[in-house]
Design goal:
The structure is a homodimer.
Chain A (H helix, E strand, L loop, with lengths): L2 H12 L6 H9 L4 H11 L2 E2 H7 L5 H13 L3 E6 L5 E6 L1 H21 L1
Antiparallel strand pairs in A: 1-3, 2-3
Helix pairs in contact in A: 3-6
């Protein structure tokens, strides 16, 4: 988790903006596409931006970039920029992001079971 | 899950508004207070409205009522109205709601571990 995020979270706890730890986790994963991003990076390995973009119907670049930036600031994903032309950027789960994967997989499984 | 919700979800899948099952689950639990409500009902048993209200600093009646109504429509919680005076309403997890509890407990545990 970034130092920036940690101090922001500590501030929120001090100000009673977070009631508890559950809200912390939800604040990290509850963006509309975040769980899906974590699932794909965790279960299928690193993805390029364009590959992530294709996963979502009708998403805008602005929204996807924002979700990726949030996840990066929260220490859940990281990106590697290859210093070659054409520019290539790959996103992958950090070690901390990997600890969220069991929850994300359970979220997927629950949705699957309850759609049947 | 209510018939109403199921048909709404089926419509969303048809229209490609949901990419996948993960989004279904997130659409059910990602209201700001929903995970917290599920955690308390699941781990501490049924709660009266006033007891739930006290759990959240600065929540409005309008917001709490909306979150409870969503969860009820999604088949996650149910309420029992006692036919006595003064009126007493208790909320509890449904059998389907109980299947979400392991995920909610993991969400809590993850937040706890990552705040330390």
């Amino acid at each position: 988790m970034s130092i920036q995020l940690r101090s922001e979270i500590e501030r929120k706890f001090r100000n009673k903006e977070f009631t508890c730890e559950k809200e912390l986790t939800m604040s990290i994963i509850s963006g509309k596409y975040k769980v899906v991003i974590i699932w794909h990076l965790g279960n299928e390995g690193s993805h390029r931006y364009s590959e992530l973009f294709k996963l979502f119907k009708g998403i805008s670049n602005r929204i996807l970039t924002k979700q990726l930036r949030d996840l990066e600031q929260d220490g859940i994903i990281s990106r590697h920029v290859y210093p070659v032309a054409p520019p290539k950027v790959e996103y992958f789960l950090t070690d901390m992001g990997k600890t969220l994967l069991p929850i994300v997989n359970d979220i997927w499984r629950w949705g699957k079971e309850n759609m049947q």
